[in-house]
Amino acid sequence: MMYKTIEEVVGRKTCSPSGCLKAKNGDIIMGKEKLLERWAEYIGELFDDDRKDHDVMKRNFAGLPILEDKVRSAIRKMKTRKRQAQMGSP
Q: pTM of this prediction?
């Protein structure tokens, strides 16, 4: 209570954590329109992607084909209940 009174006398702007944002220069932004503008600016900067494409992303990662007999063999080696749970059987 006393802290709030001191803040009012000093004249500093106070706001709840969910009600105010700071501009890039550190000033507190008040007003719905300015808050929305700042959020739009922040999100734009957050998702701005200037990275170059890497060759790694362009490679084909297909690998060798999966053989049916290898899958069946692996399933047989598993414990019975574990196999049923993975295959979707009750």
A: 0.38
Nearest-5° Cα angle at 3, 9 to 36: 80
In 3D space, the residue among 87, 51, 21 whose CA is nearest the CA of residue 13 turns out to be 21
* Residues 65, 70, 71: CA angle, nearest 5 degrees: 90
Q: How far is Cα of residue 7 from the mean position of the Cα atoms in its chain?
A: 36
Can you read off the two tokens belonging to residue 24?
A: 């890039």
Query: Which alpha helices (H) appear in 1-90, and where do they start and end?
Result: 2-10, 32-46, 55-58, 68-77, 80-87
29 near 21, Cβ under 8 Å?
A: yes
**Over the stretch 36-82, which tens digit does the pLDDT of each residue have?**
999 999 999 888 877 776 666 666 667 788 899 999 998 888 876 65
Max CA distance (Å), the chain: 81
CA distance 67 to 73: 10
